[in-house]
Amino acid sequence: MKLANLDCFNEIVIQMHDNPDADAVGSGYALYRYFESKGKSVRLIYGGRERIKKSNMLLLLKELEIPAEYIDDSSDPGRPELLLTVDCQYGEGNVTPFEAENIAMIDHHDTARSSDDMVEIRSHIVSCSTVCFDMLTEDGYDVNQDLSVSTALYYGLFMDSNELSEIRHPLERDMIEFLNVDQGLIRKLTHANFTLDELETAALAMIRFSYDENKRLSIVKSKPCDPNILGLVGDMVLQVDSIDVCIIFNKCAGGYKLSVRSCDVEVAANDLAEYLTESVGNGGGHIDKAGGFINEKNYVEQYDDMVIESYIFSRVEDYYDSFDVVYARDGFNSKDGFTLYRKKPYTYGYVKSTDLFDAGTECRIRTLEGDVRVTADKDIYLIIGYMGEVYPIERDIFCKKYRVKEERFYKKFDYAPSVRGMKDDRTCEIMEYAKECVSRDEAKIYAKPLQKAVKVFTKWDYEKYMSGKPEDYICYAYDDEHDIYVIKKSVFTETYEKVE
Prior knowledge:
The protein has 500 residues and is α+β, with helices and mostly antiparallel strands. Helix content is 28%, strand content 30%. The chain is built from 14 helices and 29 strands. A six-stranded parallel beta sheet has the order 3-2-1-4-5-6, with helices on one face. The protein has a six-stranded mixed beta sheet with strand order 7-8-9-10-12-11, sandwiched between helices. A five-stranded antiparallel beta sheet has the order 28-27-24-14-29. Helix 2 (55-63) runs antiparallel to helix 6 (183-190) and helix 3 packs antiparallel against helix 4 (147-160). The chain is globular.
């Protein structure tokens, strides 16, 4: 759905879920101001058993003058021309049902609904505020023109991502860097997050934990609470000298919320969160802090009456047994099973790093695959791969493997990669500078399909691994047995052929 799809409606009620949190309020308020700027008759409402009570939410509403209306049994929103639910879905248990002539929805929670021109649901995004930010930007609305709107959107993402520790998508990182924010208010709100009762909840959770000495892992169950309590507990538990990985979970509306913390280089928190929620929800974040959500409907369909504690313990065991670890600096103990392949004459994009920034500039490459750091140098090029992934390559290796063309490289990707200078925060869109190159016959590698998941610490980065799943390909360069990496099966079969 695009916001332009809703231009035909003049009377619009934006509904947040009952007992709205920062993400619902941030999303709802930004849309309220957008429709107000369009000359629409618009209201921002919520229902439920009680009014907002949390101190941080009351402060947010007061400081930003957000006109959130509480609708109880004695009041009635009428029957508006359009009811737009945000950070929730009409008909779900956490949304008071109000009548309307038409229903639209914007959300980020996992759902079985099929999208149409009145529904926008992106379960791979951590906050509804991010979904709204992207929709507003696409429509040409400048969210930075009003500090209250940009701050409300930022705080929505800030809270739903556990203070930015569980962001999953490069769009969320872009949003953080783009928004003008009243940081003074954010600090005030941060110091008004928890009540004394929630402090007690956190304390009880920390003394009710399970511990695996061999894995140096702790699993903690908490009572239902604000999701940020889970992050607080995880941060505290991970300071214990004998714990490297911590999983905290609790029951919440529609399912279970997870928070994952890790200081084990071989167990990225986002990787573990994705594994725990695979097929039943969604998860992600950073290598050290991540989170996830398990959809109760999906969980019951697949695991029936299995208690959630048993599921988490079982999945953790499976996770640790599911992968091997390869350090490129050590090479392979055995090269059995590897076959020689060469790249098909496929057209890629390339950019000289010094076309983007002066030599010596530290840069951050942002793609769907994550952020990669590199220092601009005349001997470092950037390759734009088959799926829009970007990776650095040394110039002499580039010249051996690719034939340069002068034509501009044009290709549409789900997320356009960019490079940002770490010193001055200047951003360059890679595609504006990209030229074509075609792989030569000399572009050869040894490869074999994986039988088991693998984590590869490449020659470029010994602090963060590349993940490979069964049937993906693990490879090493023809002329450098320490240049080890993983290629997804779908990409490999399209871009490589066996050398007969």
